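Quick check before the chapter quiz. The format below is the same one you will see on the exam, so make sure you can read both the input and the output lines.
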Amino acid sequence: MRQRTFTMLKPDAVKRRLTGEILARFEKRGIKIVAAKTLMISDDLAKTHYGEHSDKPFFGDLISYITSGPVFAMVLEGDDVISMVRKMVGATNPKEADVGTIRGDYAIDLGRNVIHASDSEASAEREINLFFDESEFCDYELPDEDIIYE
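Here is the expected output.
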């Protein structure tokens, strides 16, 4: 089933110049990037995005961290892309993330875990709409799409 998901490289990934390496992993897997941009997240957007954690003790640190530098937000598309990307990203805690996953290979600690990826269709839709307007999407075919999605 063709889906879209929201993924965001957090400030530590951007500042450590990991954007290209991580994008290459998605592209090599056959995932299509249909929207992408670098931005500084405002406090209001951060609080809305992470609203489900507002009652947790780490909420303030999370907001400070995600607004501390540029992020690279993107919308990825592919068959069952939500679960595929979550597997590629790895466990939230880098100490539990398998080697070969993005967090297992690049993340340093739980507070600096490099990447965010939507965990469900509902989250993906909500997060995509928070960060992107419909006019920012590119609809195109990959030259090898018929091989990837036979």
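If your answer matched, good. The helical segments are 11-15, 19-28, 43-49, 59-66, 81-89, 102-106, 121-131, 145-148.
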